[in-house]
Prior knowledge:
The chain is an alpha+beta fold. It has helices at 11-17, 24-32, 78-82, 91-94, 98-101, 119-131, and strands spanning 9-10, 36-38, 41-42, 48-49, 54-59, 62-68, 85-87. A five-stranded antiparallel β-sheet has the order 3-2-5-6-7. Strands 1-4 form a two-stranded antiparallel sheet. It is elongated and about 75 Å long.
Amino acid sequence: MKKEAVKKVRIDKWLWSVRIFKTRTLAATKCKKSKVKINDQIVKASSDVKIGDLVQVEKNRYHLQFEVLGLIEKRVGAPKAQEMYRDLTPEAELKKFDRWYIGKKKSEFREPGQGRPTKKERRELEDFKKKYPF
């Protein structure tokens, strides 16, 4: 008995099976919150995705875009899953939060066992920070 090729798959299943989301529940929740689009149309979790469709997903404040190259219903290994889509997300979108981290430094550091700064030390730190802002 030959297995017939899949022609369409539910979007929540596809997003889970190609490892865009860790669980199918997360994928369905994103669909319910209107964070998933197929060909610029907001979709429900039960909507079908076909080969050639453009899928847009909002995940962790990034707007990801994928072209569907293959359909699978079961979760597979990462190398196989990556063959099922082409990532079309613009480079600028992937790096949009990088500027926020540039120039950010860690907070002040005290050696373990020194305890909290005294009032005098705290004032000196505040004066130093005002004189040399980072």
